[in-house]
Amino acid sequence: MTRKKVRLAYITNDSARKATFKKRKKGLMKKVSELSTLCDVDACAIIYSPYESQPEVWPSTVGVQRVLSRFKQMPEMEQSKKMVNQESFLRHRIAKANEQLKKQRKDNREKEVTQIMYQSLIGNRLQHLNLMDLNDLGWLIDQNLKEIHKRIEKLNDEEGSNNSQLLAQATSVVETVATRQHGGVHAREQIQRPDFDANMENMQRQQWLMDLMNPQEPAGFGGDDMMLPFADNNHNALWSNAFFP
């Protein structure tokens, strides 16, 4: 349940005003104590009331005198820099409320003129408008046209930027493909040539081993059937001499 907003006005009822004073005074003293404890700052409070003969102070009379003496030692400009009284507080609140009212009136007027513009777009006539309404309507139309032109320029810039990025990406892809193709042919040549040389070397080594394992028989004089002169059927003897067994 939300708390009811208190109306800031003088309480005419005596008993209600006295009860409110006691309640608010207790809360104020508590807040000053919390501020001094949590933030470690020097603070004091002095409250005069028609219900008590002596003012009520916090934290003590000595503490109040110490804080006031420190305050009086400050330059006069620094003393009044953030000081407010009831009159200045109300003046500030009134100025703030006037600013809010002015802003709200401007928003309401803009919405009203926007509604008139939409009505004119669907065919309603503008004869009932006075000079002020027409001026406001023209200003609103100009503002909308400016926003439209800004939006168009932004979209064109974004489209041009996207096209430039796409063109750069396409160019990069083409260059990469061309580089890879050229590098691939060169790499294949570099790879195939060592493989070819290695294969030739292996083939030569195998042929050499085959020749070593299967030597060619020397060709005889006339072949296997040819008989050497001065020899018999014994192939181990070339001469028929007893001295050569």
How are the elements arranged and paired?
Blueprint: H1 14-39, E1 45-47, E2 56-58, H2 61-72, H3 76-79, H4 86-121, H5 131-213
Antiparallel strand pairs: 1-2
Helix pairs in contact: 4-5
Pfam family, one: SRF-TF
Main location: nucleus
GO biological process, one term: positive regulation of transcription by RNA polymerase II
Main sheet?
A: 2 strands, antiparallel
Biggest sheet strand line-up: 1-2
Distance between the termini: 143 Å
Helix content range: 55-70%
Low-confidence stretches: 185-192, 218-245
Q: Calculate the mean pLDDT score and round it.
A: 77
Secondary structural class: mainly alpha
Order of helices and strands: HEEHHHH
Strand content bin: under 5%
Q: Which of globular, elongated, flat, extended, rod-shaped describes the shape?
A: flat
* Alpha-carbon Rg, integer: 57 Å
Extended strand count: 2
How many helical elements?
Answer: 5
Keywords summarizing the entry:
245 residues; 2 strands; disordered C terminus
Structure overview:
This protein is 66% helix and 2% strand. It is mainly alpha-helical. The longest helix has 83 residues, at 131-213. The radius of gyration is 57 Å and the shape is flat. The protein starts with 13 loop residues before the first helix and ends in a 32-residue tail after the last helix.
